[in-house]
Design goal:
Blueprint lengths: L3 H14 L8 E3 L5 H6 L5 H5 L11 E7 L9 H8 L2 H6 L6 E8 L6 H6 L2 H4 L3 E2 L24 E3 L10 H29 L5 H4 L75 E7 L6
Helix pairs in contact: 1-8
Length: 292
């Protein structure tokens, strides 16, 4: 109603973009009729500012930043309605590897800031929640009243909305966007490094087979001119009573074990190269019209 979530979202977007990540802002579909919104003097400025998100939009991003005011210590019904539509994506595994963080706003200092986070964690457990912890000293600032916590940034709006986000709130919001983008970016880059291997010059330059190279059927091929196979063990001393045998196939003496041919090394398998798909982040703000 008073634009507090929009103000925090603006700073969070700045933080995300400072890392080079792509931001795709959306709003969540309003469920209240316009007649009710009008009587509530609800702010609908976000409706024309950002497009309405659909569950399928989640497939195209690496991270989700959710912003919504608190309602009785939890998120508004509009957000729950959106979450309920993502069951198919979750069942198909499309939400695996999607990170999420959030921010909120409440009327007073003890009006449900942290409980809004806690009551949302069951859904976030199906993705992967990234808190800001105390990664910025401002989170633990006690010089002024604030709503932020290690869970994420929050602001105090006042019962009538006359309070606006403080400089401390806005700084934490921008930090949260930057922190989250760096965290998710590190994961994505690491995942790509282990699953997508680009061919190198060395990998493309496979040497031709050379004489004497072991094969799966013949073992080592002995070049012409060699009449005896070499061995690390000293050959048995021949005596006058020894029975002559064919060249290259010496008869083992008493107590000498026959050598077991070693298995040929397996040929290295080429790693399939996967096509990388450019993704981004989006900051999602509830457009219930009762934005605090």
């Amino acid at each position: 109603m008073y634009g507090h979530i929009d103000a925090l979202a603006t700073e969070i977007i700045k933080g995300v973009e400072s890392t080079g990540a792509i931001v795709k802002p959306y709003v969540i579909q309003e469920t209240l009729p316009n007649e009710v919104l009008t009587k509530m003097y609800a702010n609908t400025s976000l409706q024309s500012k950002y497009p309405v998100i659909t569950p399928q939009d989640l497939k195209e991003v690496d991270g989700l930043i959710l912003g919504a005011p608190t309602r009785y210590g939890r998120l508004p019904a509009q957000v729950d309605a959106f979450f309920d539509q993502t069951g198919g994506l979750w069942a198909s595994g499309a939400l695996v590897g999607k990170f999420v963080t959030m921010f909120t706003s409440a009327a007073g200092q003890h009006s449900g800031h942290e409980s809004t986070y806690l009551t949302t964690f069951p859904f976030f457990a199906h993705l992967a929640y990234v808190p800001i912890a105390y990664s910025n000293p401002l989170v633990g600032n006690v010089d002024s009243v604030q709503g932020s916590s290690p869970y994420g940034v929050s602001t105090i709006a006042g019962a009538d909305g006359h309070l606006q986000p403080t400089a401390n709130d806005l700084a934490i919001a921008q930090h949260q966007g930057q922190y989250f983008a760096n965290f998710v970016g590190t994961f994505v880059k690491g995942k790509q490094a282990t699953t997508v291997v680009s061919p190198t010059d060395a990998a493309n330059s496979v040497p031709e087979k050379v004489a004497g190279e072991p094969t799966s059927t013949n073992g080592y091929n002995v070049e012409k001119g060699h009449e005896e196979a070499t061995s690390t063990a000293a050959p048995a001393q021949a005596t006058a009573e020894s029975t002559p045998t064919a060249a290259g196939t010496p008869t083992p003496t008493q107590g000498e074990k026959k050598a077991t041919p070693a298995s040929a090394p397996a040929a290295p398998a080429k790693t399939a190269e996967k096509k990388q798909k450019k993704k981004g982040f989006f900051s999602c703000c509830d457009d219930s019209g009762i934005d605090k």
